Each structure stands twice: as structure tokens, then as C-alpha cells.
């Protein structure tokens, strides 16, 4: 492609095969250079500890959820044994344990304020 007086390609002239292949080679080099820069930036900024901390948070939240349900069931079973109100105490306290577990999960996820905040 011929150039105009300002150094830019002249859009009125048809492009030749040599012009197109030269532009394609320059584009390939520029894309490779940018890709290499992006890869180097990503490698430097990735924090390998973030994966472990996310897993530990998930394990903690899951165990708190299950523990709340188990504690609710045990308390309900104990009340049923003492009061002779089988299965009502266990059902009520299982539901309360489930609600407490959901509340803990929501607090850990940041969807609710913690008490005292």
C-alpha cells in the first residue's frame, strides 16, 4: 500500500499481497509481545495463599453449619428425654439449629452484620 505525504497508508490505493503480509507479521509480533507481558503480569500478581484461605473459609463455614444442626438435635433430644415430649423438642431444636447455621453462614459470607457491629 502506498503512503500519503503524512506517512499514513493511502486508503485510495489498493493493498498488495506484500503489504498485507507485512501488516499481518507486525500484528502477530505485537500480539505475541502483549500476550507475553500479560502472562508475566499475571504470574507476578497471583497469590497462592488465596486458594488455601478460600478453602479454609469454606471448611470452617461448612463445619459451623453442620455443628449448629447437630447441637440443635442433641438439645432437642435431651429436652424430649426430660420432658417426655418426643419428637416435638427434637423437631423444634433441629429447626432452630438449622436457622442458627444459616445465620452463621450469612455472617461469614458478609451478607449480615455481626452482633455488636
Number of helices: 3
N-to-C terminal Cα separation, in Å?
A: 68 Å
User: What overall form do the CA principal axes indicate?
Assistant: rod-shaped
Q: Which percent band covers the strand fraction?
A: under 5%
Beta strand count: 0
Rounded radius of gyration (Å)? 33 Å
Structural class: mainly alpha
Pick out the low-confidence regions: none
> Helices and strands, in N-to-C order?
HHH
List the domain count as a whole number. Answer: 2
> How would a textbook summarize the main sheet?
none
Mean pLDDT: 82
Q: Roughly what percent helix?
A: over 70%
Function: A possible function for this protein is to guide the assembly of the membrane sector of the ATPase enzyme complex.
Biased composition (Basic and acidic residues): 20-44
Region (Disordered): 1-54
GO biological process, one term: proton transmembrane transport
Quick tags:
single chain, 117 residues, mainly alpha, 2 domains, 0% strand
Would you mind describing this structure in some detail?
A possible function for this protein is to guide the assembly of the membrane sector of the ATPase enzyme complex. The protein has 117 residues and is mainly α. It folds into two domains: 16-46; 54-109. It is 74% helix and 0% strand. It has helices at 17-45, 48-83, 88-109.
How would you concisely characterize the structure shown here?
This protein has helices at 17-45, 48-83, 88-109. By secondary structure, the chain is mainly alpha-helical. The chain crosses the membrane at residues 57-79, 85-106.
Amino acid at each position: 500500500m502506498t503512503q500519503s505525504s503524512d506517512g499514513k497508508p493511502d486508503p485510495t490505493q489498493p493493498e498488495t499481497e506484500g503489504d498485507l503480509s507485512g501488516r499481518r507479521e507486525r500484528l502477530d509480533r505485537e500480539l505475541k509481545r502483549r500476550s507475553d507481558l500479560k502472562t508475566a503480569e499475571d504470574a507476578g500478581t497471583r497469590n497462592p495463599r488465596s486458594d488455601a484461605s478460600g478453602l479454609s473459609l469454606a471448611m470452617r463455614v461448612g463445619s459451623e453449619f453442620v455443628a449448629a444442626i447437630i447441637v440443635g438435635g442433641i438439645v432437642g433430644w435431651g429436652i424430649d428425654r426430660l420432658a417426655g415430649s418426643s419428637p416435638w423438642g427434637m423437631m423444634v431444636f433441629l429447626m432452630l439449629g438449622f436457622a442458627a447455621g444459616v445465620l452463621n453462614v450469612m455472617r461469614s459470607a458478609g451478607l449480615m452484620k455481626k452482633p455488636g457491629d
